[in-house]
Amino acid sequence: MSRIRNTSNAPALPWIPRWMLALAALLAAAAFPLLVEYGVIQTVWIRVGTRALVYVLLAVGLNLIMGETGMLNLGYIAFFAIGAYTTALFSSPRFGFEVPFWPLLVMSAGLAMLAGYLVGLPSLRLRGDYLAIVTLAFGEVTRYTFNNWESVTNGPGGIPGIYRPTVFGYLVERPIEFYYLILVFVVLAVLLVANLKNSRVGRAWNALREDEIAAEAAGIHGMRAKMVALVISAAIAGVAGSLFAYYQQFINPTYFVFMQSVIIVCMIVLGGLGSIPGAVLGAVVLDSLPEFTRQSFSSWLPAIFGRDFMAGWPDFLRTFFLDFDQYRMLIVGLVIVVMVIFRPEGLIPDALWRREVHQEDPREQEHTLQTLFDIEEGKQDLEV
Amino acid sequence: MFSKRMSSRVAAILVAALLLATMGLIGCAEPEEVEEPEVSERETVKVGVHTSLTGGLADYGFAAREGIKLAAEDFSGFVVDGVEYDIELVILDDKGEPAESPVVAQNLVDQGVVGVIGALTSGNTNAALPIYEEAVIPMISGSATLPDITEEGFDVFFRTCLRDDLQGAALGEWVIELGFERAVVMDDRGDYAVGLGNEVQATLEAGGVEVLREEGQEGDTDFSAQVANMRAFDPDVAIFTGYHREAGLVRKQMVEAGMADVQFMGGDGIKSDEIVDEAGGVENADGMLSTFSGFSPDDMPGFSEFADRFEEATGRPAGPYAENNYDALGALITAIVDAQSFEGADIIAALHEIEYQGVMGSFGFNEIGDIEAPDKTGIDLIPRFELKGDTWEYIG
């Protein structure tokens, strides 16, 4: 036990403690809208930021099952869809319901959890690739259900006119208000996941990820521990879906296509499986990069270097930067290949993952040798 | 050990998925020209083009953009308060993704456009509308045909295309006129096809025609289950309300199943020359009937000239909804001139009063923003086409 605790608290940047980095990131996120309020950057950035925060919620939630527990899930967007549709159906002119914000948020999360529980019962008995296939199918089945269940969901036409939420008596209306509302939930989700990670059940998840048979032999109820992970991550996605529906005011089934699940998986693989800061960074970078390049090459760089600054460039470079969006996925794929070869633990790795993927890590070898030496000398007991 | 294997498997799956997605995008992508700024003494005014240039409907987006560009050439130099204005188009791509649509909308609002032409699809229009509504920027779509959009009570929305329910009713009435008694109505589960299919079915059932409803999925290639159901039902007409690719395959598989004598009909989604090949040749496709959600060529005196110009400018025949988008910008500028103002509220008021004469003929907008022609109303507006050999001919 002590071995794990020692290494998992090891900071990624050794000279700054992690909690300070987290605080700095939070302050940056909280201060970011001020740039828009004071006109440094345009309002569109609030919308990009808000959407990125929704993806942060999803990445943090998916990280719980994929990173912590090691269950490959390719249908995570389904829980997001269930949360979004619950909110859309019970707070829009569609059926004339107007359930208040908090009860509806709980309902959205609750239905997503229920779906997670039901799909978990049969599928958690599967491992690795088989689980991936089942979750992929679940994601598609959910979307087709929303697409085809016309009497309730209005089918492919979607649900427009979702009401604005009233939170503690305050009507959330402007994009900036949504930004802060969602930021609060991001902070709550990060705190929840960080604490779970260091809890008894978090250890059980990690043990199951490492070696399921050994973990069960050591007394962990594998099915129960995995179910807890799945249900909690489904709840986070349900909350994200609810907030997204309120923010967007309109949803239809095309929001919840398979590619969205893939993109969230990309976010946490890039950031570092099992790492909360990694998931946050991956989500923010992947979601805002296209708008960032678009703004850079259509307004910021021309403002600095003059309108025709790309005139002398070769054609392929110009189209590449102006239409960066089209190549985004190609580049992300390339980055993932390179990363799996050279840095499989991700951009901001989790200490435990880093040790696993670099078993030839000299520090690790040294540590192991030292431990063996200590045991032999009688300074330390053999740990199981 | 487990983790190393897992991360390389995850990577393999992700890379495969990403490659597929990229190919989908790049395959349809149009190279974006960098527009040369013209040296001009006149003022310029920005108009947003909110469309989808990548993704599954990129060909519609291309046609829309090129139609709008032609209109920008024609309408530049309009006069407001004695000052001449040129139109500067701000063209942004929402990739056909509804989550991207609000970002594009906000971007256009930030850039201070006086009006927006778009969005391309009904879903993306719905996703962007709250933002334009709040900013009071008029939005005119040339191709968002979902009936609900104008019924939702948005003030800023107008469209220069006809609604699916109108086309559905016209298609249904046509089937009844032709005297068919047993009909199969099939859609592809897309928002356009389902809306149209529902309307056709309702019209047919009201007219006493027995209807079997079938559905495929967009992107499917094997429709043998649906065709087997059709065969058991023994229809005398099959109406497919989706797009030409699936329609062609359904027709081909119907012929293979011995239903060559069943009349094949559809909405504007099948009115494409490509359906001839997709259905397996002229012998399968000949005699198909379709309606269209634009005005008929008889009612569009300027259309042939427009089609020639479009082909000259782009090297391609005038694509779907190109003329609707041309007239969307035309109507917007005409309304600005009528109002002598760039204020959203003034332009919207002027759009409701407008009597516009363009490529599609003369039209105006009703109180909810749907297009209105002065001389014809209702289903009489919808033109009918027949596939004769390998070309669609207007038949009235």
Would you mind describing this structure in some detail?
- The complex is a heterodimer of chains A (384) and B (396).
- Chain A has 384 residues and is mostly helical.
- A two-stranded antiparallel sheet of chain A has the order 1-2.
- In chain A, strand 1 and strand 2 form a beta hairpin.
- In chain A, helix 3 packs across helix 12, helix 4 packs parallel to helix 6 and helix 12 packs across helix 13.
- Chain A is globular and about 70 Å long.
- Chain A starts with a helix and ends in a 7-residue tail after the last helix.
- Chain B folds into two domains: 187 residues, Rossmann fold (3-Layer(aba) Sandwich), CATH 3.40.50.2300; 142 residues, 3-Layer(aba) Sandwich (Rossmann fold).
- The longest helix of chain B is centred in the N-terminal third of the chain and has 27 residues.
- With 396 residues, chain B is an alpha/beta fold.
- Chain B has 14 helices and 16 strands.
- Classes of the chains: A mainly alpha (384), B alpha/beta (396).
Which features characterize this protein?
heterodimer, A: 384 residues, mainly alpha, ABC transporter involved in vitamin B12 uptake, BtuC, two-stranded antiparallel ribbon, 17 helices, globular, disordered N terminus, B: 396 residues, Rossmann fold, 2 domains, 6-stranded mixed sheet
